[in-house]
Design a protein that fits this description.
This protein has 303 residues and is an alpha/beta fold. It contains twelve helices and eight strands. An eight-stranded parallel sheet has the order 1-8-7-6-5-4-3-2, sandwiched between helices.
């Protein structure tokens, strides 16, 4: 399939790529109606790219059945209003089955989570992603790269055999490394998504990214859209004004090795009455002492 066939998918990646939360009910199950309401809020707020089963959605804490449910709810709610990029991962058969399930439901892309394995070779990284990409040649495939050792040449090698690898979610916290990696792999060949969200978006855009992921968008879609509009127009001063606005919120998420990454987002949503604050282990709800600050930040965004 030619790259022309992936124009819609490429355009969807060059945007705010929202990573929705997975809200839980009082009994601990996925709160389906709340999930739908949160998705509609994103869509109504102008978001047109959704990633179910991303890290902000607590991918690794969901059961296989819950991951399928989250995919189904998201694709159903999105309809024609958004492009859906489904997170897949774990062992190769599980990742392939998830990708095929996404395809059957009408998703247009899959994001392949960084392989969770203590021993990742660069050639093995290519093999893992090739197995997924070859199983769903009709779908756009987006590797989620958190491995600082991986070289751009390896990504180019993967795409040589799998032309449906069209974009990259790059999440190594090093703007200089990103700039080099993107140029080694092919700056124009892939859509580069800043995978560390709004805090890194300005520096990564300056090096060639055209989209960024966001968990904050669950709370304040307009704030994320303000940032991408500024970045698209090359107005870095305006982008950094937004950066200053979200700085404290994102610092709370990033503290202690990102221990409260999802916790802070859900706490903000809980403060707005939009979902319960519960997260699953190994995450943990925010202690009482931290809740007021998060609520004040969310309230300050005039949502």
């Amino acid at each position: 399939m030619s790259s022309v066939a992936f124009e819609t998918q490429r355009a969807a990646l060059a945007d705010v790529v929202a990573i929705p939360v997975t809200p839980f009910a009082e009994d601990g199950s996925v709160a389906e109606d709340t999930h739908r309401a949160l998705l509609r809020r994103l869509l109504d707020g102008g978001i047109t790219t959704l990633t179910p089963n991303g890290n902000t959605g607590e991918f690794y804490a969901l059961t296989p059945e819950e991951r399928r449910l989250v995919t189904e709810l998201t694709i159903d709610e999105a309809g024609e209003r958004a492009v859906v990029l489904v997170g897949v991962g774990h062992d190769i058969p599980t990742a392939v089955a998830s990708a095929r399930h996404a395809r059957e439901l009408g998703a247009q892309m899959v994001m392949v989570h960084q392989p969770v394995h203590p021993y990742v070779s660069q050639a093995g990284w290519v093999d893992y992603h090739r197995a997924v990409a070859e199983a769903v040649p009709e779908l756009g495939v987006v590797p989620y790269i958190r491995n600082a050792q991986l070289t751009g040449a390896r990504l180019a090698e993967l795409a040589d055999t799998c032309p449906n690898v069209i974009g990259v979610k790059y999440a190594v916290p090093d703007a200089a490394r990103f700039a080099a990696f993107a140029r080694d792999a092919g700056l124009e060949r892939f859509v580069w998504v800043a995978g560390l969200a709004e805090p890194y978006a300005p520096s990564y855009f300056s090096a060639g990214a055209t989209g960024f992921t966001s968990g904050l968008v669950n709370v304040a879609p307009a704030v994320s859209l303000n940032m991408i509009e500024a970045l698209r127009s090359g107005d870095y001063r305006a982008a950094m004004k937004v950066w200053e606005q979200i700085r404290r919120f994102e610092e709370l998420r990033a503290a202690n090795g990102s221990a409260d990454n999802v916790t802070v987002v859900k706490e903000a949503l809980a403060s707005l009455g939009l979902c319960r604050r519960e997260v699953r282990p190994p995450s943990r709800p925010l202690p009482e002492s931290g809740r007021a600050e998060v609520a004040a930040i969310a309230a300050g965004w005039s949502i």
